[in-house]
Each structure stands twice: as structure tokens, then as C-alpha cells.
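Practice problem: non-specific serine/threonine protein kinase
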Amino acid sequence: MIRLATNKFSDDNKIGEGGFGDVYKGMFPNGFEIAVKRLIRNSSQGALEFKNEVLLIAKLQHRNLVRLLGFCIQRNEKILIYEYMHNKSLDYYLFSPENHKKLTWHARYKIIRGIARGILYLHEDSHLKIIHCDLKPSNILLDDKMNAKISDFGLARIVAIDQMQGNTSIIAGTYFGVIILEIVSGKRNIDYNGVNSIDDLVSH
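Answer key — C-alpha cells:
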């Protein structure tokens, strides 16, 4: 069914690439759209890690997190099925000479607020304490109303309450701070002073 929904994982259906595999747009016969993350077969992520990711994401329910709808393990094939985000990712708009015009200041503020709410849920409000550790514009997806939803928990780690020390908090805070600067400036952190510059947006 998933193969049919993604037109046999055709390149025309590919909408993204990640560290563990490619992402495809899928559609069921009733018109319901999904995003399918197909893990690469020689990925270092084993079956146990895959199951842990599934269990982790399934327990996280928040309006600013991308929802996991299902998963599939068959032989060497491992697949995650997510809700489909019609407006792609934040970087699609933020760093495009044309698309960035669609991000009004109100929209940017709304996106920042959504990201903050998602992070707060992960860090404080969820019964699990999660540090995402890979927050970046390409991992911030936008729904049909331009609401921000945090995606890609492939690098996320469950942090026990008694292990919530400064290092992980500083890392998470730095990622979020960089995203805010990029949203406000419309520039990539590493490109702020030019390709050959050793300075970045944060140090500047």
C-alpha cells in the first residue's frame, strides 16, 4: 500500500532527504496525503533504534510537533509515516529570493512562537524529557496555515530528569537562538559574512 501511495517511491514523489534516508509524498486512494520516510537499508540505525524512534515520537503529541501516523518494518525495509505538511519547510521560504517575501513579520513571529512552544513541550511539559539537538530551518515544517511544526527526531535523545544538566540545555538554547537570528535576518548562519569568512551570524 505504501509503495502504491508513493508511486513505488518514484523520484517525482521525493520531497526531501535526511541522514537516515529519503522522504516521499504519498497519497491513498481516498485522497489522504502522507509523508513517508524510507530509511536507507545500510543505515547504521538498527531495528532497535528504529523502534525506539517510533516509540519516542508516538508518545509526543503537540500541535507544534509533526505527528507520526504509523510505521512499517518488513525484512530490511523500515518506514515511518508522518502527516504531510503542505507548505514544506521553513528554509524553503526563508532563504529563497522570491519565497521569503511571503514571510511577513507577523508570519515570522508566529513561526518563532510555534517553535518555542514545541521546544517547551519537549523540554518541560512532556512526560519524556527530549533534547532535539538538530533544530534548523529544514527541520521546521509548515502546515497549510503556516503553523510551525518541529520534525526529524533522528538525533533526539531521551534525557532523564536527573541528567538535565547545563550542556544539553545550552546546546538546545543555541540552536533555537540561531534559528531566531536566521528568521529575523533572513540569512543563513554560515553565510552571514560570506562563503570564505570564518565568522558566522552568532559570532557577528
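Discussion: The chain has five helices and nine strands. Students who identified this feature from the C-alpha cells alone can consider the problem solved.
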